[in-house]
Each structure stands twice: as C-alpha cells, then as structure tokens.
Design a protein that fits this description.
By secondary structure, this protein is mainly alpha-helical. It is built from four helices and no strands.
Length: 98
C-alpha cells in the first residue's frame, strides 16, 4: 500500500478494502462504511486533513511572495547599474563597459 509506505497513514490497523484492495461486498456496504468511518485509521486521516490546512500555506501565496522578493531584488540591482552608468557618464570617463 503506497500511502502506508510513504508514511501518509501511520495507523497499523489499516483496512485495506478502502485503500488498496477495493470493495466488493456491496450487500454489507453500509455496515462496512460505518465501521470504516469509526475506525482509528479514518479518524487519523481526517484529523491530518483538518490540521494540514492550518499548518501549510497556499502555493499561490508562497509563489507570489517569492516572486515579489525576487522582483524587489532585481529592481535594486537595476537601480545600482543605472547609478553606475550615470556616474560614469557624469565623470566624463572615456569608456563604458558594455
């Protein structure tokens, strides 16, 4: 079971019928769903889902913040280059680095 191997499910009492094996006995389906809903494995995953949103940030926000910082850094570099060019032009230097 991939989720268990990756550590996404830490409970040892995992019911394979809902995760890896599939479900075939539809006559006892409602009972099986109720048992799964009350299982420790299901409760653990639901708790992780609820706490995941509180502990992680939105990818868009993270990318926007990173992009904004990079943009500010590039703007500072450009301003420094423009100051250097203006200094060289004002100092009547005979050459400009291309």
């Amino acid at each position: 079971m991939a989720a268990k191997k990756l550590g996404k499910i830490g409970n040892t009492k995992v019911d394979g019928s809902f995760i890896s094996d599939g479900f075939f006995n539809w006559k006892a389906g409602t009972e099986k769903f109720r048992k799964h809903d009350e299982s420790e494995c299901h409760k653990e995953v639901v708790e992780r889902l609820v706490t995941l949103h509180a502990t992680t940030r939105d990818v868009g926000e993270m990318l926007s913040a990173g992009h904004a910082k990079e943009k500010a850094d590039k703007r500072k570099q450009l301003l420094q280059i423009l100051r250097s060019i203006r200094f060289l032009a004002c100092s009547k230097c005979g050459y400009i680095i291309y």
